[in-house]
């Protein structure tokens, strides 16, 4: 009888420990940075786009900013692109923009890894597959919503945004590259996403004519 109660108590203790561990894990996963509460429940992030240090001669040098805004904990991520440096053409080439796995710029944009793909799915279903955008007079100024997030274990903070040479074929190119990266071509510029104040977003979102 004593052994029975000992086993029962031990089992109950194990279940309690597992439950506490799972709750702690869930709590940790949803904890928000302090900046959320400093901005009334909203987190802002940004990265400063620069040309890749390994950029091949003849390719456009792209500069600008990528700005992010998201309400905690489940708000839709809003993204604002502000790029310049593309050639001014009558029929401009669409340029793909994606979030890549690593915020590592040691060798330009080549060390940012592949697309950020936490669930192991095919392109264009990665959370940071933004698609492509057509420059107007050498610039891209646009705002949109994304499936990516700034919160929890899937946060894109510390990862890189990359601007590509070509359009995104959205996985319809019929080859392996299409399902990995949309055959978007070489990496023109990149930047690392970091937490910022609301100043940049407030300034540039007012100037942007496209509203969500």
Which SSEs are present, and which pair or pack?
Blueprint: H1 2-30, H2 34-38, E1 42-51, E2 63-71, E3 77-84, E4 95-100, E5 106-109, E6 129-133, E7 139-146, E8 160-164, H3 176-181, E9 187-192, E10 194-196, H4 199-207
Antiparallel strand pairs: 1-2, 1-9, 1-10, 2-3, 3-7, 4-6, 4-8, 8-9
Radius of gyration from the alpha-carbon trace, in angstroms = 21 Å
The portion of residues assigned to helices is: 10-25%
- Quick one: CATH superfamily of the largest domain? Superoxide dismutase, copper/zinc binding domain
Structural class of the secondary structure composition?
alpha+beta
- Count of spatially separate domains: 2
The second-level CATH architecture of the largest domain is Sandwich
Question: H/E element string?
Answer: HHEEEEEEEEHEEH
The averaged pLDDT comes out at 88
User: What separation lies between the terminal Cα atoms?
Assistant: 67 Å
Beta strands, count: 10
* Percentage of residues in DSSP E strands: 25-35%
Number of helices: 4
Q: Can you walk through the features of this model?
A:
The protein has 212 residues and is α+β, with helices and mostly antiparallel strands. It folds into two domains: 1-30; 34-207, Sandwich (Immunoglobulin-like), CATH 2.60.40.200. Helix content is 23%, strand content 30%. It is built from four helices and ten strands; from the N terminus they run ααββββββββαββα. It has helices at residues 2-30, 34-38, 176-181, 199-207; strands at residues 42-51, 63-71, 77-84, 95-100, 106-109, 129-133, 139-146, 160-164, 187-192, 194-196. Strands 1, 2, 3, 4, 6, 7, 8, 9 and 10 form a nine-stranded antiparallel β-sheet that branches. The longest helix has 29 residues, at 2-30. The radius of gyration is 21 Å and the shape is globular. The relative contact order is 0.21. Residues 8-29 have low confidence and may be disordered.
